[in-house]
C-alpha cells in the first residue's frame, strides 16, 4: 500500500469501499455468505461440511472468486492499459450480476459478483503479487506491525494508509447495507457505475522511493 503514490492510494481506498459495498449487498442477499472475503467462506465451508449440509453455494462463490482473479490476471498481462481493462471487467461483471437479479437464480448473480471481486484484486498486481482490496486481514496485520515499528523509533504514521484502506471497506459496507435494504440486488447497479467512474483514475501504479523498510 505505502509503495503506491498518494493518488493510487486514494484509488485503492475507493476500491476497498467498492468491495465493502458489494460484499454487504451480497452478504445480506445470500443469507450470510461473502463474495469478497474467501477466508470467511472457507470457514463457512468447514462448518457446513461438519453439519452435513449442502456446500454448493459456498463452493460456487470460492470457485467464481478464483476464476475472477485468474481471468483478470491473464487480461492484465497485456501491459498497455491493463488496469483500465481489469476495472472494466469488474464493472461488466457487476452490471451482469445486477441485470440478472430478478430472473436468474440468486446464486448465479452472486457468482458473477464474486468473480468481480476476485478480478478487483488484480488491479494493483505487480510482479505476480496483489494488493488485497477486498479483504483486510493483511491490512490489519500491517497496522499492528507499523505501530510496533513506530514505538521502536520508526516512521510514526506508516500504519495510516493501511488504516484508511480498512476504513474504506467499512464505509462501503455501511452504504451497501443501506442500499440492499432499499433495492436488494439492484443495489449492484451503483457499484458497477462507480467502478466505471474510477476507471480513468486507475492508470498505472507508480511507486515512490522511500527508504527501504523490510516487509512493506
TrEMBL record:
Pfam family, one: DUF1275
Leader sequence residues: none
Keywords noted in UniProt: Membrane, Transmembrane, Transmembrane helix
Transmembrane domains' residue ranges: 12-35, 55-75, 87-108, 158-178, 185-203
Source organism, top-level taxon: Bacteria
PANTHER family (UniProt xref): SLR0142 PROTEIN, UPF0700 TRANSMEMBRANE PROTEIN YOAK
Listed name of the protein: DUF1275 domain-containing protein
Organism: Sphingomonas turrisvirgatae
